[in-house]
Predict the 3D structure of the following.
Amino acid sequence: MLKQLIMVGALLSATATFAATAATEAAPEIQKETVASELTVTKEQPAVGGEKAKCDLVAATLMQKLGLKVSEVNPTPISGLFEAVVQGEIVYVDEFANHLIMGQMFDTASQRNLTEEARERLNKIDFASLPFKDAIKTVNGNGQRTIAVFSDPNCGFCKRLEASLKDMKDVTIYTFLYPVITPSSKEVSANVWCSKDPSTTWKALMIDGKPVSQRVQDCDISSLDRNIELGRKLNVSGTPTVFVSSGHRAPGAIGPEYLEKMLSQAERK
């Protein structure tokens, strides 16, 4: 993956400089435990007609020059400048792929961060299509609002998130056990999944630190493998990762205020 740079308008050569940068590991996000993933999620395709043909040509040229996966190219408000998704990262390139910009694009008139908007679009999922039968269901209050959480039992930030979730009102929480951090994560997850009351067992483990009893050996734990595959397809690169009903995600141990804001925005969409 590319190392994301917090600079605006840093113009670089789209050959050796970019290829060297691509080999650098991405800095880990704050409050996020990272795992490897190279899969993409379903996304919109803004370019149409002649624009799409030009975007396809830019993508092919860029891929040839860099030798890296270019999953998407879209036009930008600036004539001759294109937004490209390379190895999952958003960059900007001219129509001949001779120069490349890594950084963020802002619309000064509307004060919008266009790069962040593009990133949200790329990371958005079809929430309704999630296989909720493979998740632990917890209902707080009337459960009117809905979130999905990918979580590992050995994830410290996941435990911090669970402490926040227990006090949230009127929300249904679907916890997809995502045992990816340590070798023991899958066995612990299996014991939780196979317990008599997975929701109560999960909260006791994550909030109170109560050990989980050993599962019976004939319990079906195939859901854990499906969750791992699902997480990779959705580009869940760390735990915890939270999705709200609008399909937007919030990686990391977000606080209750931030999650409430996301839920309010999801209800308006």
Confidence is low (pLDDT under 50) at residues 1-46. The chain has two domains: 10-123, 127-267.
